[in-house]
Design goal:
The longest helix is centred in the first third of the chain and has 102 residues. The termini are far apart. Among the domains are: about 60 residues; about 60 residues, no CATH class. Strands 1-2-3-4-5 form a five-stranded antiparallel β-sheet, with helices on one face. By secondary structure, it is of the alpha+beta class. About 65% of the residues lie in helices and about 15% in strands.
Length: about 270
């Protein structure tokens, strides 16, 4: 813009500013009889106040605009939170409904468990008694150990801090141990009461087929007779076989054929 045009713009602006002031001064002079100078000063003062009020109004407008933006942001944030909470509550409702169904199922299962518990407890007691009777009628090997196992099972049944499933597991474990005796060979040393004396002997058990013992000095050997439930003394011809069987059971030598006394089946049993 040229210098002349800028000057013209300034003059026009001053003219625009001066027109209302002059008009007001003329009006004030006509109405109040004030001098032009006083009227001009009043007009300038009024104009200054108007500018101050205009500036204050503009600030208030800008503040209101900022407040509006803040409120809009808060509103949008509240909408998002509301949407999130709606989805979360919907998920919680589904979860609560599923838990109610599960609780009903668990209560039904608990009722069945209590019913099964009432039925299985007598069964377990009968199993223990049957196992005890079986041991009494079986060959007399590991008598103390097997009797102690039955005693522990009876103590277990009256314990309130042990679950029914654990009690049943322990009983089945005892049955499994007894079952294994029929498939294993074993050697152990213990005190045997024979008549009015007690002697320390080596026992050899071959499954449930044969149970023999031999004194430590190898001077006496005997085999258990299940029919008469007594010991039958053996002659010296079985001494080495029993001694070899004891070594095999203790894994001191390799497995080999053994010549051991076995009860002969009665006629008609084959």
């Amino acid at each position: 813009m040229t210098r002349s045009k800028r000057s013209l713009t300034v003059l026009l602006a001053m003219g625009v500013l001066w027109l209302p002031v002059s008009a007001y001064a003329q009006t004030a002079l006509n109405l109040g009889g004030e001098s032009p100078r006083e009227a001009f000063d009043d007009a300038v003062e009024i104009r200054g106040k108007a500018n101050v009020e205009l500036t204050a109004s503009q600030e208030r407008i800008e503040n209101l605009s900022d407040d509006t933006d803040d409120l809009l942001t808060q509103y949008q944030s509240a909408l998002r939170q509301h949407e999130s909470l709606t989805i979360y509550n919907r998920q919680l409702d589904a979860l609560i409904e599923a838990q109610i169904v599960e609780q009903a199922s668990l209560e039904e299962q608990t009722d069945r468990v209590e019913l099964v518990s009432r039925d299985i407890t007598p069964l377990m007691l009968r199993m223990i008694e049957s196992l005890d009777a079986f041991i009494e009628l079986d060959m007399p090997f590991l008598e103390e150990e097997r009797s102690e196992r039955i005693l522990e099972l009876r103590k277990l049944m009256i314990r309130a801090d042990v679950t029914e499933s654990e009690k049943y597991r322990r009983i089945m474990e005892a049955y499994q141990i007894e079952n294994e005796y029929g498939r294993t060979i074993e050697a152990y040393r213990t005190i045997l009461a024979t008549g009015d004396k007690e002697v320390t002997v080596n026992f050899l058990r071959v499954g449930r087929i044969a149970l023999v013992y031999q004194s430590l000095d190898e001077s006496e050997s005997a085999v258990w007779n299940q029919d008469t439930r007594s010991w039958d003394l053996l002659d010296g011809s079985f001494r080495n076989a029993i001694k070899q069987g004891l070594k095999i059971a203790r894994k001191q030598v390799a497995p080999d054929l053994l010549r051991l006394p076995l009860p002969m089946p009665e006629r008609g049993e084959i």
